[in-house]
Model the fold of this input.
Amino acid sequence: MKIVITGGTGFLGLNLARAIIKRGTMAGPSGRQEEVDGILLFDQVIPDRLPDGLDSRVTMQAGDISDRDTVFALVDRDDISVFHLASVVSGGGEKDFDLAMRVNLDGGRHVFEAARARNGLPRVVFASSVAVFGGSAMPKVVGDTTKQTPQTTYGLTKAIGELMVNDYTRKGFFDGRTVRLPTIFIRPGKPNAAASSFASGVFREPLNGEECVLPVRTDVQMALLGYRNAVAGFVGLHEAEGAAIGDDRAVVLPSGTYTVEEMIEGVKRVAAANDITLGPITVRPDPAIEAIVAGWATHSEAPRAEALGLPNDESLDRVIQDYIDDFMPTH
Amino acid sequence: MKIVITGGTGFLGLNLARAIIKRGTMAGPSGRQEEVDGILLFDQVIPDRLPDGLDSRVTMQAGDISDRDTVFALVDRDDISVFHLASVVSGGGEKDFDLAMRVNLDGGRHVFEAARARNGLPRVVFASSVAVFGGSAMPKVVGDTTKQTPQTTYGLTKAIGELMVNDYTRKGFFDGRTVRLPTIFIRPGKPNAAASSFASGVFREPLNGEECVLPVRTDVQMALLGYRNAVAGFVGLHEAEGAAIGDDRAVVLPSGTYTVEEMIEGVKRVAAANDITLGPITVRPDPAIEAIVAGWATHSEAPRAEALGLPNDESLDRVIQDYIDDFMPTH
Done:
């Protein structure tokens, strides 16, 4: 079977592809395990060469997800699954509403329509976010059955995608599942336009001996999930039987809640254990970022994920150590 | 100021226009009362002549709401408000998914974009429905803060519209409000493709001496609101101050819950009091209609509407008597 990953050369997309390569098989449209003979990583821009941990089964393609024909050409087999991760992120969506609507909403519709056009019932896993929650109606603890009241255009488009996944599934157009992600850490590489970018930067930059400038105060709380378990959530939800999910296909992934202060203490602890000298951490609040982050849920429940056996992190320190092991090999 | 009503020659649209004609003024984009000098009723098809209760301030225009240019040409002044009622209904949307998406989702976006394109902050009132609720995740009693889990494509498009109204309002693109309607009764005229059509037919056809064939069993419960108070809800929510609504702009209108048996008893009581001989009522369940109706909420709370002073019906019998007074003048 073939696996299409939109946003496939992003951090989560690449790690998902690596996990699928390691597995070798995935549940096909029939529900039976099928050998994966092709993984297509589709993204706006792609790297010059295939990243590490992938092999000849993996191809990369650059293109515009808001172009219907481009998207339909990606989903070109009936023995196929689609992971739809491509998205304008939160900060980017606040800067350009129309871009967020075109890429996230129109692009998402193209992906869903392309899957619908196949014979059989391909599995489609949509990446949503706890950014669907927010505002004055948001309870202290959010979960699978909390009303979506997004306070960013990014969150709006994710909430719409969740609703579409449910209806396309109900109609029998495809077998859809939504992974609702908390903030995923620690992302390697450079900061991005996501308002949550600092939740990786606070670990990554100091570990790399660089300065981290924090755009929020240190008592800010964030719900975080390590990238290894985020990928496990994508794979696990793809593999789950539809009947075990039910008619509301959106599943909040597990997370842990930490203050920025706890993140700083954690990186100091793990750096000391690994003999790493940290770069400096400076607090310089950015009102625009603070306003977005203040609207996010800090605590969430994940009963559906737990019932499906999707894993949570062992500890904050464990995720920091994973990052050092996975992305700082020369350390 | 000008008032645009999409779906304007439907039952609710016409009665809303009549109510605005009677008022004479509405809150303009500034919040101050302004004289209404034009009401445009836009619809897919329009009657040959202006319906009763309207005057020279009212014009009608037929067109396709899924055509962007058509919609932009309707919203051609800055001193304007838009009531967006046009919609493929529930039964129709289940028969034709793509039509529901084109008319309700794409058409809605055109309306919202057209309002956004104006200077000032026009008020936009969007007609949603308690059909945004359903499925296994739906609680026994639904309300303003219940998660939307629609089980029809109609409900999907209404939930999406609600989310968009919130975000366009948050962004300062317009001042949006969503009226979430229960089943509205008693609609005059002919049955339509809405799965809830029988909730008017059970009164209307017998009062007109005709047979009503009920597609559901008589122990089925429905949450109903009389058309007079539905119109009062539209007007009241338009007139409310934005700050009084808050950042989640969707307001469940009040309703009463009745079994079909209670509806039948009610029409018998009021018919007797008015010396009307009823046509026969026959129960002939239609599994497709029953399945849709079974997914709807039967009980709802409306705390936001109550806080804003939006009225509920005095009684079932009162709405039946209103219908006789308003639509059976020769009786």
